[in-house]
């Protein structure tokens, strides 16, 4: 009998493992957290709104009564918040097995983070870059530890790293800034793996959900949001539990390797079962990977221990 496609039943026992998931109160992050908690992981919901985080933890407990779930306040648009959250996580956990960089904003009006970064790049890439760097030494010697960074197929669309105008000060495009941030996620994931390879227990992978029916488009303009919710999602997207599967496979499949990119296996990449997929040529530009890493260290003040 042919084996069925990979799904949550393939997640190995996660007992004794600690998973930190950003943006875990809703959508893909919530489904990722719920699945890992069901398999025995101690899951930390790293969220901006702790009230919503506690509500999410209660929903997970209703699904899995013995689930070990805690809530950590984290605002990825503030380096102060990131440093505080990382210090609290380090104090509470001797080791971290999984760091899932899931949270994100999409198609926002032009605005900046607390530190003056363009909001989409600052939240989606720079925030996760800083958080990873501040937690990584609690992972490097942990067998089977992984950093999974969630990107998007939007890394192909109007996407390039404009090092001469990284913060979109000369001109701003909602879709262009989002694409740049998602390309940055991949450049970061691949460069992190290059620095980890052969030296540490941790590996770095990436994933994308395809088209997923989540709240991510809530910050877009009303016409775009209506189009996304009434046309794109019904015709092309899959639900949040299916959209979380590539992240879950990257995080837990014993056969996964560093620098792999997981996404839906459908022809358009929008739907399907999680498999290793190919990212854009730009995402594999090693010069851009190294340059973005250096710039990110300078902007955040966070130097990774690798």
Q: Outline of this structure?
A:
With 306 residues, the protein is α/β, with parallel strands linked by helices. 40% of the residues lie in helices and 12% in strands. α3 packs parallel to α4 and α4 runs parallel beside α5.
Explain the layout of strands and helices:
Layout (H helix, E strand, L loop, with lengths): L17 E5 L4 H12 L3 E6 L2 H14 L4 E6 L5 H14 L5 E4 L17 H17 L10 E5 L23 H23 L6 E5 L14 H15 L3 H4 L1 H8 L8 E4 L9 E3 L9 H15 L6
Parallel strand pairs: 1-2, 1-4, 2-3, 4-5, 5-6, 6-7
Antiparallel strand pairs: 7-8
Helix pairs in contact: 3-4, 4-5, 4-9, 5-9
Protein name: SDR family NAD(P)-dependent oxidoreductase
Verbal overview:
This is SDR family NAD(P)-dependent oxidoreductase. The chain has nine helices and eight strands. The chain has 306 residues and is α/β, with parallel strands linked by helices. It has one domain: NAD(P)-binding Rossmann-like Domain (Rossmann fold). The mean pLDDT is 92.
């Amino acid at each position: 009998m042919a084996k069925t496609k990979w799904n949550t039943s393939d997640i190995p026992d996660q007992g004794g493992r600690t998973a930190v998931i950003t943006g875990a109160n809703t959508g893909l992050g919530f489904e990722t957290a719920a699945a890992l908690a069901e398999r025995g992981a101690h899951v930390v919901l790293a969220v901006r709104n702790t009230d919503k985080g506690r509500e999410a933890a209660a929903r997970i407990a209703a699904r899995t009564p013995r689930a070990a779930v805690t809530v950590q306040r984290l605002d990825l648009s503030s380096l102060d918040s990131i440093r505080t959250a990382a210090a609290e996580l380090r104090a509470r956990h001797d080791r971290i097995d999984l760091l899932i960089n899931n949270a994100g904003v999409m198609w926002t009006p032009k605005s900046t983070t607390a530190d003056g970064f363009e909001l989409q790049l600052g939240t989606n890439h720079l925030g996760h870059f800083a958080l990873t760097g501040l937690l990584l030494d609690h992972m490097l010697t942990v067998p089977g530890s992984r950093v999974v960074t969630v990107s998007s197929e939007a890394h192909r669309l109007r996407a390039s790293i404009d090092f001469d105008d990284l913060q979109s000060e000369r001109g701003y495009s909602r879709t262009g800034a989002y694409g740049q941030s998602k390309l940055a996620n991949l450049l970061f994931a691949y460069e992190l793996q290059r620095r980890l390879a052969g030296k540490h227990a941790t590996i770095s992978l990436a994933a994308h959900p395809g088209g997923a029916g989540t709240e991510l488009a809530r910050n877009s303009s009303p016409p775009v949001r209506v189009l996304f919710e009434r046309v794109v999602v019904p015709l092309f997207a899959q639900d949040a539990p299916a959209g979380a599967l590539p992240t879950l496979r990257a995080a837990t499949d014993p056969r996964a390797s560093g620098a792999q990119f997981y996404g839906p296996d459908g022809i358009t990449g929008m739907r399907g079962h999680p498999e290793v997929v190919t990212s854009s040529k730009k995402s594999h530009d090693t010069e851009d990977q190294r340059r973005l890493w250096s710039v990110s260290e300078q902007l955040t003040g966070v130097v990774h221990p690798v």
